[in-house]
Amino acid sequence: MLLAGELRLRGLHVVVLEKLAEPTGQTRALGLHVRSIEVLDQRGLLDRFLPLGTKYETGGFFAAIMKPWPDRMDTAHSYVLGIPQTLTERLLTEHAAEAGAEIRRGCELVGLSQDQDGVTAELADGTRLRSRYLVGCDGGRSTVRKLLGVGFPGEPSRTETLLGEMEVAASPEELAAVVAEVRKTHFRFGTMPLENGAYRVIVPAEGVAEDRAVPPTFEEFKRQLRAYAGTDFGVHSPRWLSRFGDATRLAERYRTGRVLLAGDAAHIHPPTGGQGLNLGLQDAFNLGWKLAAEVRGWAPEGLLDSYHAERHPVAAAVLDNTRAQMQLLAPEPGPQAVRRLVAELMDFEEVNRYLIEKITAISVRYDFGEGHELLGRRLRDVRLKQGRLYELMRRGRGLLLDQTGGRLSVDGWADRVDHVVDVGEELDVPALLLRPDGHVAWVGEDQEELLGRLPRWFGTATG
Hints:
Layout: H1 2-9, E1 15-18, E2 31-32, H2 34-42, H3 46-49, E3 54-56, E4 80-82, H4 85-99, E5 102-105, E6 109-114, E7 119-123, E8 128-131, E9 134-136, H5 143-148, E10 154-155, E11 160-167, H6 172-182, E12 190-193, E13 199-204, H7 218-229, E14 236-245, E15 248-250, E16 255-256, E17 259-261, E18 267-268, H8 276-296, H9 306-329, H10 333-345, H11 349-360, E19 383-384, E20 387-388, H12 389-392, E21 398-402, E22 417-421, E23 431-434, E24 440-443, H13 447-458
Parallel strand pairs: 1-5, 9-17, 21-22
Antiparallel strand pairs: 2-4, 3-4, 6-7, 7-8, 10-15, 11-13, 11-14, 12-13, 15-18, 16-17, 19-20, 21-23, 23-24
C-alpha cells in the first residue's frame, strides 16, 4: 500500500491485487521504528498515526536486553511508535485509495508472463491484466517469487512460536508475576494487554509444524502455557491463533526483467527487534521513485537496478542481526553465557547505540562511493528558514539545499529537483543534493561537481 501511494504520487496508474477479500484482523507487527516514522513524516502521513499509537523511548529491542534508549540519535523522531499492524495497514490503505490507487480485493494471482513491453498477470478467475511492471509484495510464501523461479536460499525454521489473541481469567498481578519468572530463562514467552480487553499471548511451540499455514489449536496453546508457566492462566475466547518460525531466507535477486520483489517476498527472518514490517516499508520507499522514473522515461541507466544493489545488502544485514538475536534468546547455558557478555558490552554507550541504530535502520548507508560522511546516509528532518525539510519533500522530488548564496543551479532538472537557497543554521555544509527518498547524493559547493552528479540520479537534463 505504501508503494501504491508512492507510485500514485508521481501520477502512475496503479492496481493493487489482494488475495484476501477482507483484512485478517491479525496483529503480528506492533510498532514502527525511526526510519519508517521518518518516511511517514516525509509523506505527510505521520499525523494520522501518532494519535493511534504510543511513543516509546525504551531499550530491549536487541534480543530483549533491557538497556537505556540512547541519547542524541541522528533523527528528529527518537522513539519507537507502538501501533498495531492492523492500524498501520488500514491507514496506508486509506492513503493509497485517496491517492487514486485501484485496490481489488479477492483477486488471487496464479500466473504471469512478461515480454520486452510489459507483464501479463493471470488471476484465479481467469482474468488477465496487462501492465508495464509488476511488484510482488505477497509475503514470505510469495507466488510471484515462485513463478519467477527466483532462488530463496537460507535456513528453514528450527524453532517455532505460538502467537494469538485471547481473554485471560488470571488477575493482572498473577499474570505479571508468572511471566516475569518464566522470562528469566525463556524470552519467547509473554503476554500483553490489548485495548479490546484481550491479551496478546506468545509461547514457544512444542516443535516445528509441517505446515505453518495451519494455525495451532487452542488446546495446543493451553498445553504449552502449562508446560512453561505451570498454568494456562484460564485463557479462553481466542480471537485468532497463529504460529511463526525462525526461518531466515533472502531472495537471490529483487528484479527479474519487469517484475520486482519487495517486503517479505524478498526476505524472511525471525521477528526479533520488530524489523520485518519496517524493512518492507523502507523497500517500498526506495523502489517507488525509481520505478516511477523508469515508467516516466527519465530514469538514468541502472537506476532501477540500484533498488536491488541498495536494499539486498540491507536485508542481509537484518537477517544477520536476527540470527544473532535468536542465539541470544536460546535458553541453553552456552547462548545464555554469550547473552550475559553482550549485556555487559551494551553498558558501553557506543555499543548500545550501535545495536539500536541497526534495529532502527538509522545506520543504513548506501554505497555512493568515496566522499563526505553524509554521502549515502539519509538526512534527518532539519528546520530550515523555509520550513521543515520533510515538509519540503512531500512532492517526492529531489532537493538541492544550497547555502552558497545561490551560486549553484539545477537548471535542466527543475522538473525533477527543487532548489532551496539560504537554508538555515542546522545544516553545516555548503550544499547537498537529496534523492527523493531523502538519501544524500552529493555534498559540496562546486557547480561542475553537481552537474556530474545530477545525471546519475535524475537522468538527462531537459531544455
